[in-house]
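Blinded run. Sample ID left blank on purpose so nobody reads anything into the name before looking at the predicted structure. Input follows.
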Amino acid sequence: MSGKTEPASHLRLSGQTVLIVGGSSGIGLATAQAVLAAGGHVHIAARTSASLAAARAQLGPDVQTHVCDAASEDAVARMSANLPPLDHLFTTAGAFAPDDIRTTAIDELRAIHDSRLWSCVHIVRHCTDRLRHDGSVTFMSGTASWYPEGAALTSAACGAVQSLARSLAVSMAPLRFNALCPGYTRTALWSKTFGDEGETILASLARDIPIGRAAEPSEIADAALFLMTNAYVNGIELIIDGGARLT
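Blinded prediction complete.
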């Protein structure tokens, strides 16, 4: 026994600063709450000032907010000019979008990749120079890359994000890059995508996986903190799906 006192696990981000793009709702908001509980400082970015104000009301006045549509490189560049030094960066940008590649308007299909893949590119281009030399970047992807379920372009974008994380873990070392791949998660995205039937659809889908339920955003946030705080995790896709890939 060395007698060395290890820091309390609940303060494992003490004094560190985290930027969460898409931090005003769902998994991003839950991650912001988890970072604060772990002793970190939080900056969140979202597309509208109204959503940021609502999030700040939940998170507290010390949280810094930035209006930014990550699909726009100019918007990300403007945001980056107002960022402090960062320890970790997490982006949840991108939405699930059902599509028929034969009939969906091409602009709608391109927007899926803009919101998922190109948002990550913009953030890397303009925000990683704010990171400490061994900081971390986590891209949120999803299990749609394995289970398309009527969303071909979302599936392709998720796969591209995962490949991007692996590639950047090599080309931008010692920065760490990982992809977080949640499965069915109880967020407002389901009602936004499917309307009043969203909750019913989610429950029906989640009933067939081994755990038998959808994840809570806080459970995915715990995984995001793991990717930030374990300094030897690099270049992986962390799948949090309740065992769905086993069925």
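Unblinding after everyone has recorded impressions. The domain at 11-239 is CATH 3.40.50.720 (Rossmann fold).
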